[in-house]
């Protein structure tokens, strides 16, 4: 008998019939002999509707009260799900984040999990019940106030409970079959990845792959929780995210590149003509940090000897652009840079693969593929298992497709077409 | 400085603009130098919408999960109300029933309050905050599960918290100016009652006056909580419900009759031809009690000597009729009664007044008034401070008006008309 933690997102429980379908899936897992803990998000658009109500009442609602408001969404979905399971003849008990022992700090809106003490969940499991837990929420250790975990919160709840309960697997249900080698909407020959390491998945998430949130993968990695990303519309195996996918199974050789990710949500700012003196770059980035802006990539040109000035370019979330530009304009007098350039028509394309550690030719192959496809590289950044480039936004699709093909990630189109679902 | 507990019902917080209006009223009370604790119901139709969702998922939802679902309604309204108050520059903190220390038994759907331990509310007040508390809900002492208090639950929460906090007053806000001597829709000359005793108010509530629920008045009486029933649309004084209204103030002599209540929600069942033997009536009422039916009035005719049989009539909530009739049919073999008669076209008219203790002529005056008005009395029941009669439903309005006039409760129509609001 295994202990299975399952997480269903808002679209999986969007209405009564969706909830009934999810209930059947949960009961099937239970009937197969497993203990089951389910983490559920708020129904479909509930959170947006509640935010809309809040906006009607106050332009700047206090975080504590906004969290109190938003957490009612999961309370509704989890109670309905427990009812739907009861209606199938199985015992289910729903628990708020607080009842489930999800202890957080008191940063309303984006609280961090400090501890998980799921004694009531264990008790429910011991009695043979299915436990339904509200995702996205917890209770603050200091103030005992209700908190929310922010983006990716329900996935993080699922992984945190799986860790605390020492679950055999944390299943994250979504509307696709798992993690793909590239976005299938861009690369039709993209393939589902059977297994991927935490490190690679974290790079994928950080580089724009939207299926799993970075934070949940970080948590899973720290506590060695195996994640199984799969579709709520089929029973097919999805993608396993584990510590070391290539020693656990023997079915495949480690690929050089696991996937190609892309991200269109960043913009580029160039500070032109910065005096090439010690401390000027530091002053620029301190100003941005003080404004709460996360910088992604940075490039500093070689200083032109004639002028003693240099250009510094960096990328940041497009949504932070105006805050950043305002902050930079304020220090123009101190830094005495010449001007600011802004470009939100950029995109980031990233190759991720633990295998590139032992394959020094990856960068060359990647850049050659982009050059052949006519895509110009504006900025470059690398980690041990990732290469990212900034290109013009219109070139993102071409770049992703070219890289995918260059590293032999394309599915065997012929067999897929001729033999249908039986290929590969 | 006084401690004021205020309760606002669902219609007072039906939408964002209602919530803002209530927030202004609360802030005005705070600004007047009071500590303020607010109990709030779910917004308008929220509870019905949640019940509708539950019905779509399961025809027989478990009580625990239904309570979990329904309590999200107050969570929404209280968070929004706290935001609206913050938007007026005052600090407000919302608390669930559980956080407010409303401890109940574990009877889901109609839990009873066992204890109230409002330490977090006191703490909020000590810090100068306005405390907003979810009405209608608590947490079970044994199972730590969320419970709901059932009908009149928010009023009861308000009175219970007022008692635990030793508040100076519990203000119940509604859409009328207070308690009236009769339903103003029936008797245009009905007058607002400035003060009424707990005992009278309990009889009024039990006899169909809908402003306050019996249970909340019982609680207030036990803990000597002064209730002030008033309109959320004006700042006029409403009706005070207190221990002894006629010694506290000196402005008025005790009236014989405080008010005339009516109730159209009952039906009458007559068990015809019951053998006049010891234990037969007991068997009938035990059967009904086992079926969970609350009987109101009972009349047993004098046995006809010739047949040795008698008729037993009783009234009950119309909604329980079919359950009662089914239960009675099942015991027809044992009891050997002749037949059942059912009548849901009845109404109950009640005179309530602590003054009738010392005025023996009340019954005679009441019955004469009904006779003069051509209304036939079908059943009679009395307590020390109440006389109730069952009449045919079409005669209810006539009976109420006649009784109201007979006991000089009608407002002085002439002065009211000629001098407008300044009369009397």
UniProtKB/TrEMBL annotation, chains A, B:
InterPro entries membership: ACT_Aspartokinase, ACT_dom, AKii-LysC-BS, Asp/Glu/Uridylate_kinase, Asp_kin_monofn, Asp_kinase, Aspartate_kinase_CS
Reactions this protein catalyses: L-aspartate + ATP = 4-phospho-L-aspartate + ADP
Pathway noted in the entry: Amino-acid biosynthesis; L-lysine biosynthesis via DAP pathway; (S)-tetrahydrodipicolinate from L-aspartate: step 1/4; Amino-acid biosynthesis; L-methionine biosynthesis via de novo pathway; L-homoserine from L-aspartate: step 1/3; Amino-acid biosynthesis; L-threonine biosynthesis; L-threonine from L-aspartate: step 1/5
Coiled-coil positions: none
Pfam families: AA_kinase (PF00696), ACT_9 (PF22468)
PROSITE patterns for this protein: ACT, ASPARTOKINASE
Keywords attached to this entry: Amino-acid biosynthesis, ATP-binding, Diaminopimelate biosynthesis, Kinase, Lysine biosynthesis, Nucleotide-binding, Transferase
UniProt keyword Transferase present: yes
Keyword Membrane part of the UniProt annotation: no
Domain ACT, residue spans: 269-354
E.C. number: 2.7.2.4
GO MF, one example: aspartate kinase activity
Family indicated by similarity: Belongs to the aspartokinase family.
Stated role: Catalyzes the phosphorylation of the beta-carboxyl group of aspartic acid with ATP to yield 4-phospho-L-aspartate, which is involved in the branched biosynthetic pathway leading to the biosynthesis of amino acids lysine, threonine, isoleucine and methionine.
Protein name: Aspartokinase
Natural source organism: Nonomuraea guangzhouensis
